[in-house]
Amino acid sequence: MGDFNLALVIVAIVVCVLVFIFNVYLLVNYQHPDDANQAYFPKFVVVLGLSVAAISILMLPADVANRQACRHAIYNGACNLTLPMKDLWLAIYIVDAILVFFVIPFAMFYYEGDLDKSVGKRIKSALLWVVVTAIVCGLVLGILYGLIGKVDFTVRHLSSGTASFPSSWDFSHSQQCLGNSNQCSAYLAPASSEKTWTMQTTFPEYVVALATIVGSVLFTIFGGVGIACLPLGLIFSFIRRPRAVITRSQYIKEATELGKKARELKKTADSLRQEEKSGAKGRKWRKNVKAVEKELLQLEEDVKLLEEMYPQGEKAETNWALTVLGYLAKLILGILGLIVSIAWVAHIVIYLLINPPLSPFLNEVFIKLDDIWGLLGTVAFAFFCFYLLLAVIAGAMMLGLRLVFITIHPMKWGATLMNSFLFNVGLILLCSISVIQFCSTAFAYYAQATAAQEIFGHTLQSLRGIKYLYKYNVFQIGFIALAGLTFVYYAAFGWRRRKPSGKFQLSN
Predict the structure, then answer these.
(1) What is the distance between the alpha carbons of residues 93 and 107, in angstroms, rounded to a whole number?
(2) Do the beta carbons of residue 409 and residue 416 sit within 8 Å?
(3) Are 224 and 479 contacting, i.e. CB atoms less than 8 angstroms apart?
(4) Distances 206 to 178, 213, 472, 493 between C-alpha atoms, Å
(5) 195 with 156: CB under 8 angstroms?
(6) What are 445-468's pLDDT values in tens digits?
(7) For the chain, is the Cβ count within 10 Å smaller at the N or the C terminus?
(8) pTM of the predicted model, to two decimals?
């Protein structure tokens, strides 16, 4: 037993180091050149946040592996040798909540502060916003915890009579208790034996529960949209691909049009900057800024597409071959992603929405993979959890391009500003809690008897005021509904290329 847990600890340490190195690699390659050799604190927050999100996802497979240390226990104290997963869960999610609600907002306020101000004034301004947020959040959490921070467990009161020790036992299906009582059988006991057992939950568990609810709302919206648009976006990107290299005259014509569009955008941006300096930052101004951001993203996509259709330089033929291979890779990844998305939707319907479940479905798949090789099921399990996080990011990007009230924060290789990094890290951290809760519920058969099940399965689903959201599967139904609507949308309009509107309602 001790050797098993020692191996698990070693694997956990190695994985944490690899996750940290990989996140540093992402930061270095995605950051904007303007942020090179500066903004070190936001960069530290980005690496820390991504590491916490990745580790929190990997902790559920680790929880399952940790549970297996007790599977063949031959003495009662064997489970004392396992890792304290419940304490680790609470610690990682308290850190998650602190990062999402305090550290990342502070880093964003500091990064986006007026550069004309001194560092001290920018820190003071950012701290002021964070302190106000902390006071409000603390008051709300304290009041809610004091009033409704309780869990209501539905239990049956079972009892039996007493009798002298007999020489033979006389039990049957209809007589399962001693004496004339029928109160020891949960199946035969009357409905009046049901009782509600109320107890106060711990404050860390309550913080995790409320953060999970906030994350679940975002996860339902972005994840439901993303589970469909992630694979379909890749497939339709292949369908809309450039079929052949254009001529030089066509390239000059298209480049001239893009240059004209770029000048119009610059003129519009200058007008908006003048409005900002004059203090006219009203609703119309924000709407125009949003429109300019969308048109700028569309212009960048058009420029990239034009460069693909007319490769230049000594390696033009090589670049065109790589472009063709890239679109083929998108098609393959899109088909594989579509299979995973369909498996997710089918599993939610079969295992979660239908009561009793028709089949354990993916739970059985993971168990059989574990029988083939010890970590194969765990790897597949972690992959399905990470896929949900990718779906959340894809859904946020899609809705951000189409809805006015959602801010666009694109992630681009070598051109991502720190505020976009921080926003997406905050979104990933907030939704990672819900992804874990969702996975622990969806794969309850595979992840049974784990610390995650205790926190997210029993406490969360019995918490007063919140339990009805889980009792009636509100999040799962919303997830499936949005996935279906997104699929219909892509089937109807996904093959079309989006046209820029070019309409701006300028005040002047």
Answers:
(1) 19
(2) no
(3) yes
(4) 42, 11, 21, 43
(5) yes
(6) 887 777 777 766 666 677 877 778
(7) C
(8) 0.75
